[in-house]
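# step 3/5: fold
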Amino acid sequence: MDTPHGKIIEETEYRMLYDEEFILLSESTSLKIIYFTYFQSLLQFGIIFWGTTINLSKALILQKRIMRVMLGLRQRTSCREKFKKLYVLTVPSLYGLILEMMMFVIKNPEKYQTNDSIHSKDMRQI
């Protein structure tokens, strides 16, 4: 993929699926931590900054592959119950959650402070 989020997905896929040293050095708990800190954080970043241009179906397939590697499952094994057991949101669920949170912030601006309400000077000019 030539897009920035495509390169992130490709790098993540290589790192978490094909790098044998990466997989061998990681235990299951460590793999879960790595999943949340590396893959899911990149996925959230992609959803927030690229919105609907991110290829959600490819990201979901990659997410399932990573889940199977983490749990030592076969390629055709369903991951549905495993996502629930590990408290991992699927890509579509994560997309929906982020969208809902962004819409809440947009609809309720009075609940949040802006920089100009805190500082009397334009901080970009300093």
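# step 4/5: annotate
The chain has a mean pLDDT of 76.
# step 5/5: archive (pending)
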